[in-house]
Structures are given as structure tokens and as C-alpha cells.
Amino acid sequence: MGPEEVVRKCIQAFESGQYEQAGRYLAEDMVLDGPAPEPVGKDAFLALQANLYKGIPDWSFNLHDVRTQGDMVSARVQITGTNTQPIPPLMPGMQPIPVTGKRVSLPEEGIRFTVREDKIVRIETDNTPGGGVAGLLGQLGTKIQ
């Protein structure tokens, strides 16, 4: 399987709430850098996405403009979804987020994946103003505590 297929299958699994399946495409030492206040590893990333999906079941990355060069896959994403269920705490010390009914649409951001041996080892996102976890929480009317 090529790097782009690995990325697309992982994103599809996340968007359909299949976190165990998505986790199969992530290396054990995978690092996500960009959307959260601090870089996070595989388990924290899976937990974050699972909690977001619980509260925003129509979560979509809207992956597009995908380009592959060697083991690097770059793309654009624009996260959208509607908060129709409570969102469990996203980070230690955070309170659950009650249902707001709000539709979120984060700014389009660049994202880069490094893939080795059919596993994503690193995900980096642009720090776009209004994006990431802080942007999502802002659109829901809350903030990182």
C-alpha cells in the first residue's frame, strides 16, 4: 500500500468512527504536532478523535489537494461537523462540553503526513488562526481551561 492510500484509509476510518481501524494505520510512536497545545502521541490522538466524534458524529476532515512525494503526503483539510451530543473531556482537567447544536467549520489548513512501512509516523498541521482544538472550542463557545 502506498503512503497516500494509508492516509486516505486512516482518514476514512476516523470519519466513520472506526478508531480501532484508524489506529492500525498509526505507528505506536506516532506524533501529532499542531492542532493541540502540545504534541500528542497515538493513544492521546485516538482518544481525542473518539471524544470529538462522540459529540460531533458528522465530523469530516474534508481532505483534498492530496500530493505525495516519497514517504510524505501533504494535503489540505477543512474540519466541519455539528455538535449534536455531549463531548467528553478533550484533555485532562477539561470539563465535558454540553450539546450546543452548533455547526463548526474550521479554516482550511495544510497537513503533512510521514508514512513508513504502511504506518503514519508523524502528522503536522499548520497553526492557522481560528484552527485546531482552540478554534473548535471557540466556535462551540468554550475554551481550553
Could you characterize what this model shows?
- The chain is of the alpha+beta class and 145 residues long.
- The protein has one domain (3-140): Nuclear Transport Factor 2, Chain: A.
- It has helices at 3-15, 19-23, 42-55, 132-140, and strands at 26-33, 40-41, 64-69, 72-77, 80-82, 103-105, 109-116, 119-125.
- The chain has a 6-stranded mixed beta sheet. Strands 5-6 form a two-stranded antiparallel sheet.
- A hairpin with a 2-residue loop joins strand 7 (109-116) and strand 8 (119-125).
- The longest helix has 14 residues, at 42-55.
- The termini are far apart.
Structure characteristics:
145 residues; alpha+beta; globular; single chain; six-stranded mixed sheet
Question: What is the number of domains?
Answer: 1
The mean pLDDT is 93
Based on secondary structure, the structural category is alpha+beta
- Spatial extent as radius of gyration: 14 Å
By DSSP (H or I, 4+ residues per run), the number of helices equals 4
Q: Can you tell me the CATH topology?
A: Nuclear Transport Factor 2, Chain: A
* Fraction in helix: 25-40%
Strand residue percentage? 25-35%
- Inertia-based shape: globular
User: How far from one another are the termini?
Assistant: 41 Å
The number of E-state strands comes to 8
Spatial order of the strands in the main sheet? Answer: 2-1-8-7-4-3
Layout of helices and strands, plus pairs?
Layout: H1 3-15, H2 19-23, E1 26-33, E2 40-41, H3 42-55, E3 64-69, E4 72-77, E5 80-82, E6 103-105, E7 109-116, E8 119-125, H4 132-140
